[in-house]
Amino acid sequence: MTGHAVRVPPLFFALLLWPGATLGQNKPTKYATIEPGITESIHRVHFSPTGDSLAYVYSGKTIATWHTKAKEHRKQLHKADVIFLDMAFSPDGRTLVASDLSDVYQIDVQTGKRTLLYQHLDKDRPGHVHCLRYSPDGKRVISADRTVNVWDVEKRNIVATIDCQGFAGDLTCIPGSEHALAIVEESSPHPDKPNTTVIDLKVRLIDLNARTVKTVRDSVPPVMSQQSAAARDGRLVALPFGEDVRVLATSSWKPADPAPPKCPVDPNACVFSDSGRLLIAGGSTKGVHSLVGPPGEIAILDLASNKWTGPVRVLDREVTSMALSPRNNLLAVASSKLGTITVWDLSPVIDSLPKAKAETKPDAKRR
Predict the structure, then answer these.
(1) Which site among 193, 312, 334, 356 is 20 to 30 Å from 269 CA-CA?
(2) What is the third-level CATH fold of 18-35+223-355?
(3) How much is the pTM?
């Protein structure tokens, strides 16, 4: 009936937002909603090393920061004439590195001053620098498209250039090692159809010292946006894998044992908690669609019990980027189809874990 509201019991919404939950189950609570005043997309979100600031790229050309305690915008760092595709905080939190279509820049967090750090691509080899990371020890900046460039922070020059054997859409550095994991798009002519290209996604292990590349996983199902993750101890990596999450042991690059059950959401992004006990997957609702697209949801895997919790609805559009604060308690989620970021407090989930195996709390160095 047009013009008449339908009253829906509150319990309906509770079950809609948390379909896998039972009454009384602890779940994340919303901490804040960040609306930069745009309708365009949020490309990336990253917490500073202290967790005091959240940096994000919106509309491709603007990098801004948000104060996590005051819950307010700290400053607009840079509005550029280039399109930023990725960024990463330096280990001391004083600078950001950001990549555009061909170059890597350094941005002073206090002043917003941008300086060219190095040129990843030249005019004879166009491309897009989608992946940008600091090595876990903070000594190198690593950027990738069809090649991986390794920039030595102290020497201030490129010390290695490695062929990815395809276009890298995601890059994850493995802590405690000299390796990075890349999800690479490889194209080849169709065997039966002329003028047709076949796209295949592969997971490749890149040795940053030996400058070698090894395929560890073939035929990765395509997802909207890949954001893989490595546990802090370097023993596990998690990959969005079509309608599921694959967790691999870095000792063998085979599925972890025990393998986790099927993920409750179609994942685009993964992130581990600091201790490595929790794995968070973000993506879209399975089988739920709307006029503008599926809503965004997260699910949380407790690796100690090997059980998923969730899903919980966190955005109006599917999640494509996530960041977890160094203190493990705040999760920022964003979508490349939406101009809004939501931040969630994970404390209810963390505090409900068995005390003997509870998630780590912030240590003195991170306060």
Answers:
(1) 356
(2) Methylamine Dehydrogenase; Chain H (2.130.10)
(3) 0.84
